[in-house]
Automatic annotation (TrEMBL):
One Pfam assignment: Metallophos
InterPro entries assigned to the protein according to its UniProt record, in alphabetical order: Calcineurin-like_PHP, Metallo-depent_PP-like, Metallophosphoesterase_sf
Protein name (record): Metallophosphoesterase
GO cellular component, one term: membrane
Gene3D superfamilies: 3.60.21.10
Calcineurin-like phosphoesterase domain location: 163-343
Species of origin: Flavobacterium zepuense
Coiled-coil ranges (or none): none
GO annotation, biological process: lipid A biosynthetic process
GO molecular function, one term: UDP-2,3-diacylglucosamine hydrolase activity
Parts of the chain that traverse the membrane: 32-52, 64-86, 116-137
Length: 406
């Protein structure tokens, strides 16, 4: 860990040096140089101070969220500048060796930096800067309703056209705009689907994070077939240092009770039958099961009494569960609903053209619909945000799924 931090400090120092050189080459105005240096020093000092104030007993809060956003909005553009300026330096060094080899002693070994290159570097850096700034101010509440139709040959006839609204990863402790959250709740209610399913992470860590938002989320209207929910990895309170085990246990009990308070039925490794006429499907709700996270989910226990022939919808927070256990399971789970990844809250999505996020190098299933031998998993991009207080390109999602027989 220490070596990694030293490496990060060295990279940050190099990026800072190159960025200052770009500013100096772009303009000869001295006061601009001094203003840049003053602002950079103040930002660096604030980030260092803020990280020293991070309390492992408290976990993420508004200050740590802002600090992480400030860190990204500061470092990422400077890394872009560094790449461009480093490329120029490689060319400058090669040119110096060529001139030395050719015997040209009239020119200095390193030519002066070109203003055009510095302006280009600053222009390119403006793109991630503005994108991250937008993500922190507007993007984190840029809610999108995404509709998806999924066809199953063995769907019971009475459930042809059955609709599901899925939300996931609320992370209520990160919210700071009641008006935009109410807008999202209104969007959920406008969908008028048959059932509403919430696939985990109601808070970042503490149950109290949700208390200001209980009445808001209680405003989600209960559809004909009810509202059901499961736990996510953050709901277990395992990412902070608790003074006592009792405080951790009490917090976990309070988090589970939050679901009751917003009129959701929390499912803990169990299933229910949803009946429509004389036919039924099974809704299976697991506790968290992640390949690299807590494995409290018990698929065997949750599915007791079910057969491979029963049509099943499985709620499991982490999509790695589908990859490692569910997709080839002999119990035949037709549709799995997950969240967890948030699409890293950063990426590029243009329907039909491109779908990319760095999180895809960690999770095979990270956003949207995936299929394996007629079994599906849908990964919701998340309702809230965590760590980085924003979203760029991967917007907060309300999913509407329609089940069709065919």
């Amino acid at each position: 860990m220490r070596r990694f931090l030293i490496f990060l400090l060295i990279v940050a120092l190099i990026a800072e040096i190159y960025t200052f050189q770009a500013v100096k080459a772009a303009t000869k105005t001295k006061w601009v140089h001094w203003v840049y240096l003053a602002v950079s020093i103040l930002v660096i000092l604030y980030i260092i101070y803020s990280f020293t104030q991070f309390d492992r007993r408290e976990g993420q809060n508004k200050q740590s969220l802002f600090t992480m956003g400030l860190l990204l909005i500061t470092v990422v553009p400077k890394l872009v500048i560094t790449i461009v300026m480093l490329g120029e330096d490689i060319i400058r060094v090669l040119g110096g060796f060529i001139r030395m080899f050719m015997g040209d002693s009239k020119q200095p070994f390193l030519s002066e930096r070109r203003r055009f290159v510095s302006l280009t570097a600053l222009g390119l850096a403006a793109m991630p800067f503005l994108s991250l700034l937008y993500g922190m101010t507007k993007g984190k509440y840029n809610f999108k309703v995404i509709r998806q139709t999924i066809t199953f040959p063995d769907l019971p006839d009475n459930f042809d056209g059955f609709t599901i609204t899925q939300i996931s990863d609320v992370h209520s402790g990160s919210f700071d705009n009641k008006e935009r959250i109410q807008y999202a709740i209104d969007l959920i209610n406008e969908q008028k689907t048959d059932i509403i399913l919430f696939t985990g992470d109601i808070v970042n860590t503490h149950a109290r994070e949700m208390y200001p938002w209980i009445e808001t989320f209680k405003g989600i209207k209960t559809p004909e077939f009810g509202k059901y929910s499961i736990l996510g990895n953050h709901d277990y309170g395992e990412y902070i240092d608790w003074p006592t085990q009792k405080e951790k246990d009490d917090n976990f009990a309070a988090i589970k009770d939050l679901h009751r308070q917003i009129d959701f039925k929390l499912m803990l490794n169990e299933h229910i039958k949803i009946k429509k006429g004389d036919e039924e499907i099974a809704l299976v709700g697991l506790e968290n099961w992640g390949h690299n996270f807590k494995k409290a989910g018990d698929l065997k226990k949750a599915s007791e009494g079910l057969t491979p022939q029963d049509f099943k919808i499985l709620m499991s927070h982490d999509p790695s569960h589908w990859e490692y256990e569910v997709k080839n399971h002999p119990g035949n789970y037709h549709l799995t609903l997950s969240g967890h990844t948030h699409g890293l809250q950063f990426g590029i999505e243009i329907p039909g053209l491109i779908k990319w996020s760095p999180v895809q190098y960690v999770y095979k299933q990270w956003a949207g619909l995936y299929e394996n031998i007629g079994r599906y998993v849908y990964v919701n991009r998340g309702f809230g945000f965590h760590a980085y207080p924003g979203r760029v390109g991967i917007w907060p999602e309300i999913t509407v799924l329609e089940l069709k027989k065919g």
